[in-house]
Amino acid sequence: MSGFPEFIYRNDELFIESVPLKQIAEKFGTPCYVYSRNALTQAYQEFDSAFADRNHLICYAVKANSNIAILNLLARLGSGFDIVSGGELQRVIRAGGDPHKTVFSGVGKTIDEMKMALDIGILCFNVESEAELVALNHVANSMGKIAPVSLRVNPDVDAKTHPYISTGLKENKFGVPSDEAMRIYQSAHAYPHVRFSGLDCHIGSQLTELTPFMQASNKLLDLLNTVQSAGLTITHLDLGGGLGIRYRNESPPSIKEYVSALCASTQSVSQRLLIEPGRSLIGNAGILLTRVGYLKHTPARNFAIVDAAMNDLMRPALYDAYHDILPVIKDMQATTNYQIVGPVCETGDFLGHDRNLHLAQGDLLAVMSAGAYGMSMSSNYNTRPRAAEVMVDGSITHLIRRRETTEQLIGSECLLP
Questions:
Q1: Residue 2 has pLDDT above 60, yes or no
Q2: Is 59 an active-site residue?
Q3: Residue from 124, 201, 263, 345 carrying the catalytic annotation
Q4: Which domains does the chain have, with CATH numbers?
């Protein structure tokens, strides 16, 4: 159970904090996302304390898991937020988050989203193209406001991660090249309703080495020196997120190692440091709880058909991602090699391949490390209502999202006359 300190076996039964997962399944049903409040709190506090007395702001990446109870808990801990849509901004506000601690990233911000963010008064727009900057300047002008801006620089650094979650190479859609960024900063006078206040970069997700972070940081510092020599005042450096977690046999840097390296690489500057962690805060704080519906044995393969599916947890189908799958009740009998699959009508509907487990119909399984990009990427494919979400706090369970109903899914649709 290394890597999952809040998930432990007691007398061969899997618990989250002080609550048996079997009890959660009986009370709330399956499939169900279950989170540890203590794990999330400890992860945030580890980030915060690692900065010591360095001026900093942790902006949780809302896309990793956007449940408002999770956002509210982080806001109460002092977190800021990194958003990529107007909907995420509304979640932050509903959860009690501080707009003045919120940065707005993303390549396709709409005019309405810009207006909403300006009206609320966010900390900064992370602008990803010159066309977006032109639009933001126009919107701010129409509202009689000045938009705080940080250009997202694409440092052309290989994050050495899955290509679908690599964001810092020159062929990626994110950010602007360093030389173009410098030209834009030098033309600041052309954008009178924009205030250039920061520099930003983000090179990818699920990074397990420090070297790419350091390469990106050094390139950002080079640009900072050039920008400041041109007379512009930069108040913060946004170093992005992307720190990985252990899913299987990865050995990512610890939170302290990661933050210490960022602080060391930027020790020559006085700007406030912003980071945007998501997965490294919530990933290992949550699991997907599912029940075996059927066991199907064929000459080629053995299948355990569970009630969770690719619409509940997309990562295996999308990235061929690995998640540990643990029995809720340990059984020491001989194991069988199973494909853990869901009921969705796609061959790609799987949660895990080649898992050696002793299973019977009705058994419960815990899909580990599912706190990030699980519920937030879920869908209603095959008209499947999305799962319930539960937060565990010691011996107390809190329902933080009710299970959807089929009526909710089809209630907004209309028949033709």
A1: no
A2: no
A3: 345
A4: 7-36+283-410 (2.40.37.10), 105-277 (3.20.20.10)
